Amino acid sequence: MLLRVYWSSSSTNKIAEHFPAPEEFDPSRFGNGKAAPAYSNIPFGSGPRICPGKEYARLQLMCFLHHVVTRYKWEVTNTKAKIAGGLNPVPKEGFHIRIQPYNKLA
């Protein structure tokens, strides 16, 4: 008998027991000293081998996302994209979006 186990690190932060409303975008989820339970969110590894640049990477991503979200309108163009399985599931044809600056939408 062949047994296959599929685990994706991105699925660990969608457990409602640890993260209320896991499907909602909440950038403050880990702010103000709030910490996730041990080993429930591991994008940078965990334990003694945790990435030393974790907080720097988080700061860079938050600054980048702030500017992109506040300055541009996003529109998904391939809403029916098929997902390819694997260690990290991804859309087969990529994730196509149209981005327009807010000041040119009038």
TrEMBL record:
Cofactor list: heme
Record has Iron as a keyword: yes
Any one Gene Ontology BP term: sterol metabolic process
Molecular function, one GO term: iron ion binding
Residues that bind heme: C51
Entry's localization field: Membrane
Pfam family, one: p450
Alphabetical keyword list: Heme, Iron, Membrane, Metal-binding, Monooxygenase, Oxidoreductase, Transmembrane, Transmembrane helix
GO CC term (a single one): membrane
InterPro entries cross-referenced by the UniProt entry: Cyt_P450, Cyt_P450_CS, Cyt_P450_E_grp-I, Cyt_P450_sf
Main location: membrane
Membrane topology field: Single-pass membrane protein
Recorded family membership: Belongs to the cytochrome P450 family.
Name of the protein in its database record: Putative cytochrome P450
Gene source species: Rosa chinensis
